[in-house]
């Protein structure tokens, strides 16, 4: 029966196109003979021994619950019943990690201080990463319960994918990790973000060939074009082509060398191939292939690092930066599941997708698979590499010294212990928001222009620790005032290639989000401004990052990092010219699903409040902050001092727009957002003309509305009643989807029935129209607010003076709405009545 799959990792057939000799010549050739002739200097034997141990440790973690060193014959009771983890990628990860350690050690011997981070796209290759971290001593450093002793090893092996132990994938509990890898596609952009403004840092990023099929990874290959070698470190990408993903060939696995060379040369890299070749026929051939593979990779790592230093030296010391530098990358071809079982009676394992996850899933109960597991474990011959526990200088170990020669002597230069990966935070030098606030005589202003003025000062004071990562919308979003202090950063543009610009613009939200994550997790600060409708492209990245940081907060040895800060502007209420596709406030709802203690959602109503919120967010740590603001000129409702008090409280009664300071109101009118607050104030004026007593409230911190205890900012019941009353009718006009506010109010103990609270907002009515018509179409305009307020008052007080006039007043407001609709259809613009400033 045809299955649609091939069962071996045969090399791809040559391209049908005639090879271009000039292109083929671009493949980098390195002097492997130099390494082969001097294996001791390159620690080849130690590299091989380290990998044998790491591969054994990886298998043991996946399969064993006890008897990890096989001090007695293995039994089925020693095998975990719940087998998790992905073995197929582990040998390649152990190979590359070992060579990174060897590179650090060689530089250490020369007296060079090399700082490195290891980022792995195949996150479920955690058994490999954990094994290497255990061998280098980082696991024992952060988790003393797992010492490098035989007893510690037993505990370490059992802990993998065991309740209370290490999860099945790399996460923030993993030393050295700055990327979780749960959702594929972001490893490379995170790696590049990590080295920005870290000139001595080298991040090695292993990109799986399955991950390379994702759109975010495809764009991230361009990331080196934004890396200034004067001020930043370098990334060494290693594309690990093992040919298969979970149950199918990968695209790179089906490409020949010429096709891969053409692709990655086109991206702007120097490409070096390191290849295992066809599957070995026997154990002797396998050993020889592993030897040659390690010799080739050792030579390639040395070449790559030399190229990186050459590019950096030209820019830093020689002051003659290379135009469009072609940074090195390695394409590593190895069989999937290398060193594992070759086949079962049913199918091939090594060099097949069947080795992707757990190659022998029934080993705890099936005799045949159990016996294969026993032979597999024995094939690593670890008895040759372990010894009786020793203690020296307070450190204990059970691994022979020869296997650990590649481990750097300096603890803080081992990738798992590099401080930048877990404790690199440095605060910004921030101006107070009052320094950048608006004078009282300014009546209207753009929130974004006011924020830009503040950010200009931030950039001036923090030239090496703050960046703005923006889609190609920076000027459109009225933030271009920042260019008074900086420029864009794009190395392939002659105008911006030399200076250290603080703004990176490109049209891949995914890549920018990855840059920002890597930048924050290594101690710096950043901002991501975007059109509101399109920030949702990175929603799952935000969610993955929030999960990473939540666990980090619960991990004792990890220190806080700067908050993930977003500004969404060009909002739906002012995207009437671009149409329905540009109208989407959905990110608010996505953030409401995150751990509440990490989420902050701010909707400043005017420029002074926007600057106050921006200053607060840049000073905060470990939050996901969302600022929603308008770029259009809008009323300045509050002075600097008023904005300060209002933002500290999160919400307040605006007495100057209320009846007699808001005392004894008939109705509470609440604005949450810019344009919708304008309509609230306009509605208050309409109602006051009819003798209705109103209390105007503005909410700048959305999370104040939540249930007490659900969020640190949630109002107490007493404070909530003080603002909204216990039985007053309340009309809320919200920037986004009404259900998001309703969800916050729902769980409060007060009787928040629909007869008392009505939430207006965006209800998916949009088109190319006039600005005010967007409010009218979504029933978030001043006339609808007034009509609903009258209806609620009449319902709550059927015998009151407003109830007797309810029919008349409601009809009048609906009629006014209809008149505005006619005006727009006839004139193509909003009338002066609704477009004039309300202040």
UniProtKB/TrEMBL annotation:
Alphabetic keyword roster: Lyase, Thiamine pyrophosphate
Domain of life: Eukaryota
GO BP terms in the entry: carbohydrate metabolic process
Any GO MF annotation of the entry: aldehyde-lyase activity
One Pfam family this sequence matches: XFP_C
InterPro entries: THDP-binding, Transketo_C/PFOR_II, Xul5P/Fru6P_PKetolase, Xul5P/Fru6P_PKetolase_C, Xul5P/Fru6P_PKetolase_CS, Xul5P/Fru6P_PKetolase_N, Xul5P/Fru6P_PKetolase_ThDP_BS
Cofactor(s) named in the record: thiamine diphosphate
Domain Xylulose 5-phosphate/Fructose 6-phosphate phosphoketolase N-terminal span(s) in chain numbering: 43-390
Gene3D superfamilies attached to this UniProt entry: 3.40.50.920, 3.40.50.970
The Xylulose 5-phosphate/Fructose 6-phosphate phosphoketolase C-terminal domain, residue ranges: 631-835
Family from the record: Belongs to the XFP family.
Identification of the protein by name: Xylulose 5-phosphate/Fructose 6-phosphate phosphoketolase N-terminal domain-containing protein
